[in-house]
Fold Rhamnulokinase.
Amino acid sequence: MTKYSIAVDIGASSGRLILGYLENGLLKLDEIHRFENKIVKNGDSYCWEADKLFQEIKNGLKKCNELGVKPDSIGIDTWAVDFMLLDEKNQPLTEAVSYRDPRTDGMMEQVFEKIMKERLYLETGIQFQKFNTIYQLYSIKQNSPEILDKAKSFLMIPDYFNYLLTGKKANEYTNATSTQLVNAFTKKWDHDLLDLLGINKEMFHEIKTPKTVLGTLTEELVSELGFDLQVILPATHDTGSAVIAVPEENETIYISSGTWSLIGVENYFPICVTKALDYNFTNEGGIDYQYRFLKNIMGLWMIQEVRRNYNNEYSFAELVDLAREAKDFRAIVNVNDDRFLKPENMVQEIMNYCVETGQSIPSTPGEVAKCVYDSLAVSYQDAVHEIEEIFEKRFEKINVIGGGCQNEMLNQLVADVTKKEVYAGPVEATAIGNIVAQLMALDEIQHIKEARKIVKNSFEVKKYLPTAPITN
Ligand SMILES: Nc1ncnc2c1ncn2[C@@H]1O[C@H](COP(=O)(O)OP(=O)(O)OP(=O)(O)O)[C@@H](O)[C@H]1O
Ligand SMILES: C[C@H](O)[C@H](O)[C@@H](O)C(=O)CO
Ligand SMILES: [Mg+2]
């Protein structure tokens, strides 16, 4: 009997419900619902529209009825680090504040007054991003302590949506690791660290791993939707799900390319050595207790903001075409500079950077786009060199997955600057990895190697070779 699973994949720029099932050994996808996601200003805070997003999840489930689809399971994944705090009546104490909110400015440095940076990295293995959950919570403790006093439940965004679906509370492992509050070795909440920071450890829930069946829908939702299903935990950190879908059975460097570019490798143990700290790599949790040794690169957020600055006049494909036409323009920015995390105007910020560094100044949408793509490719190349230095080996190929793998110009740039074979696809890697974890929980797929073989056979993967010869 064929099992049907729904992946709810909500990224920073868009969300989608995708139905997945096995047919003749191949994984089939049907997109049920797609919707926009964005950060909105709520008072003085930059927030996600959590209520609207949950309504979109229900809208997508209602479409199943219209399509005559009766799914067996659902799994939710989103971006990392962000969370909700619930009071004793299970009511949210704040809006869903975004990691791009400036409330964490200066918080990392204040935390280092409580715990040495090196110790924090040795215990958690997590990269130092100013917006990590640890710094968000510390900001609340410093600026609105009454909120933490009332907090009885800490749920990350997917955990919160799972709670609304089932009434059950749990923290899923892959996303919990992104908080920088989980011990990389015990894989549990680091209570010593929480005590050091004066954050009440009682509000955190039991950490559960991908493939866990959390429960079924609440009675209210069954009567609203007209059906019930199993709510299964995928890797609820979207990048954790994306990495599951890398269509490569052997070792490879992956780039999960979307709002962020997450570049790294899969590993069996956490690498918390000084060089990994200096290069700011992370050891986020993966499925089956793998580690995702990777780093955040600012990613296509920059081109999303450039597109917005030009009043969404150009599609992403048109911006690539315009960048190709600007082939002679060359200026490189440090994409990982905090100035690009949430500038008032990304185009202006890029121009200012080029003025400050004495470079040619991009003046057309094509030149700005080319500057972004060239700069991302340079940043990827630096990360590849760092990975090969730490692993003391050369990797032969790079797999690009996610929406960004549709950018053929960037894929070719990556092949040219790294001098490696680049394999681009699948586009919906996150949703695919989400579905794979559900089908594994439903005993439709037995293990990851089998899953990756199925993904490779089921979806298009385009190959890019360096235009210059590969020199070993
Ligand atoms: N046709 C296209 N040509 C070139 N680039 C594209 C195309 N379609 C999408 N993209 C790129 O893909 C990006 C979106 O990727 P994706 O859909 O994986 O992001 P998301 O899942 O919405 O967000 P997140 O990265 O937070 O998960 C866009 O910002 C854009 O740069
Ligand atoms: C904010 C996080 O760095 C971000 O969610 C990243 O981990 C990611 O997975 C983006 O899709
Ligand atoms: Mg995504």
